[in-house]
Amino acid sequence: xxxxxxxxxxxxxxxxxxxxxxxxxxxxxxxxxxxxxxxxxxxxxxxxxxxxxxxxxxxxxxxxxxxxxxxxxxxxxxxxxxxxxxxxxxxxxxxxxxxxxxxxxxxxxxxxxxxxxxxxxxxxxxxxxxxxx
Length: 133
Prior knowledge:
The structure is a single chain. The chain is α/β, with parallel strands linked by helices. It is 33% helix and 32% strand. The chain has a single domain, classed as Severin (3-Layer(aba) Sandwich), CATH 3.40.20.10. The chain has a six-stranded mixed beta sheet with strand order 1-3-2-4-5-6, sandwiched between helices. Helix 3 links the parallel strand 5 (74-83) and strand 6 (112-116). The termini are far apart.
């Protein structure tokens, strides 16, 4: 599975310059390549992010999550989210599952990984809980 250079470039901008709040990636099955589906602006919210994930198609995503620790420190963590809804095609789910680890290695700087098959598995509360670990 090839990874389009734009994926790495946009991720570096998210990580270093915080140019984006999130990036959604998709596999172009005909080209067998991972490409950028959508990049969210810094002022977009977690709700904006979850709203752009298709209900019946798999996606990979990274989300730059800002939070405050129990000690009142402002921090952020970069989440890698593997979105694989139950309603997605079996072939698509297999393709995303088999390509995930290699793709994740291309994105240096991911701190937390989440896998979700339904929106409740990636609720804001779950993300906050994982960020504080």
